[in-house]
């Protein structure tokens, strides 16, 4: 059933019910997006809940999630639409019509293959459109998106303008590996998602591993916070905190002491040089917490 939140608080409660703990600014921006129909650009490091936010929104709003996973070299044919060449060829080979007639026929809607973007605006029920990791595409692709994001329409040369049947709630995510164009940013609401505050992260960890003793969870979150301060190539994100919590639960750990930390370190630190950094600095930086 489709839902429309009455307030940011209302939306935060709804997201919580589907397993997502939104911070204040996340709830506010998501609320505005749902009500104003503006796309949201969600930027931040990997593993802080950008993709999950879109999934949770689609569940809460009772809308289908249409996901376009971006990658280098992604083009219109994979993102927007493609002609069904095989079907066109078969129709031509059938030889029933003159060429002029055929042309109108085989470049009609019946021969169009909808890719995620076109699907998202032609769906009779409004969807949540997730354009994930937009920073992996190039500026040309961004330019193509502009028409879609500002007017909810696309132009297909053979067919003309295709206007949206329904307006999707659009979330674009970026891991911030390159600057996005000003033109794109201008069309979006902006949400910067960072590593959460300690209390917030503790709540997220406890939601994902409720059986882990609270004291262990609290210490885990504190250790992760300190490890993040070490200037690593890839600091541990919420995803790593959750993995670590689940592992500690499975191992029956009742404390995060130095031995436990050492033996499970590779769950939260995944670069060889980062492992070295942690080993070098851990006495100074983590000694106090681990022995507490
Ligand atoms: N606010 C949150 N509430 C609940 N779970 C979260 C939250 N933020 C992140 N997570 C969890 O952390 C993991 C990583 O999130 P994900 O959305 O994949 O990160 P990103 O897309 O930013 O790289 C997921 O398992 C997700 O469930
Ligand atoms: Mg993601």
Overview of this protein structure:
By secondary structure, this protein is an alpha/beta fold. The protein folds into three domains: 8-80 and 115-192, 3-Layer(aba) Sandwich (Rossmann fold); 84-110, no CATH class; 198-291. 51% of the residues lie in helices and 13% in strands. It contains 14 helices and nine strands. It has helices at 8-17, 24-36, 50-61, 76-79, 85-94, 99-106, 116-122, 139-151, 182-186, 198-208, 214-228, 238-250, 258-264, 272-291, and strands at 40-43, 65-69, 81-83, 112-114, 128-132, 153-156, 160-163, 169-174, 189-192. A hairpin with a 3-residue loop joins strand 6 and strand 7 (160-163). Magnesium ion (MG) binds at residues 50-51, 132, 173. The site of magnesium ion has 4 residues, from helix 3.
Task: Give the helices and strands as they follow along the chain.
Answer: HHEHEHEHHEHEHEEEHEHHHHH
Total strand segments? 9
Query: Rounded to an integer, what's the Rg over CA atoms?
Result: 24 Å
Q: What fraction of residues sit in β-strands? A: 5-15%
User: Strand pairing plus helix content: what structural class?
Assistant: alpha/beta
The CATH topology of the largest domain is: Rossmann fold
Structural domain count: 3
Give the full name of the CATH homologous superfamily of the largest domain. P-loop containing nucleotide triphosphate hydrolases
Main β-sheet, spatial strand arrangement:
2-5-8-1-9
The N- to C-terminal Cα distance equals 49 Å
What small molecules does the structure contain? Answer: adenosine-5'-diphosphate, magnesium ion
- The helix fraction, in percent, is 40-55%
């Amino acid at each position: 059933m489709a839902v429309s939140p009455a307030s940011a608080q209302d939306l935060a409660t709804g997201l919580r019910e589907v397993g997502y703990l939104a911070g204040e600014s996340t709830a506010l921006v998501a609320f505005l997006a749902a009500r104003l129909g503006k796309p949201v650009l969600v930027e931040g490091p990997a593993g802080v809940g950008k993709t999950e936010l879109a999934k949770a929104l689609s569940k809460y709003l009772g809308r289908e999630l249409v996901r376009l996973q971006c990658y280098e070299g992604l083009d219109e044919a994979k993102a927007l639409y493609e002609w069904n060449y095989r079907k066109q060829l078969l129709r031509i080979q059938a030889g029933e019509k003159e060429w002029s007639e055929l042309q109108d026929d085989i470049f009609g809607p019946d021969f169009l293959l909808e890719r995620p973007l076109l699907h998202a605006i032609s769906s009779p029920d409004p969807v949540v459109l997730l354009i994930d990791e937009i920073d992996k595409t190039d500026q040309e692709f961004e330019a193509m998106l502009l028409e879609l994001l500002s007017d909810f329409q696309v132009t297909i040369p053979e067919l003309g303008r295709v206007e949206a049947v329904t307006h999707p709630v659009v979330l674009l995510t970026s891991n911030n590996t390159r600057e996005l164009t000003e033109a794109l940013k201008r069309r979006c609401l902006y949400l910067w998602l960072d590593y959460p505050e300690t209390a917030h992260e503790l709540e997220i960890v406890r939601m994902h591993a409720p059986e882990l003793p609270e004291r262990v969870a609290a210490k885990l979150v504190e250790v992760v916070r300190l490890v993040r301060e070490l200037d690593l190539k890839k600091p541990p994100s919420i995803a790593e905190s959750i993995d670590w919590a689940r592992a500690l639960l499975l191992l029956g750990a009742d404390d995060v002491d130095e031995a436990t930390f050492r033996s499970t370190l590779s769950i939260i630190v995944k670069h060889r040089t980062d492992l070295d950094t942690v080993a070098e600095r851990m006495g100074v930086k983590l000694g106090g917490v681990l022995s507490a």
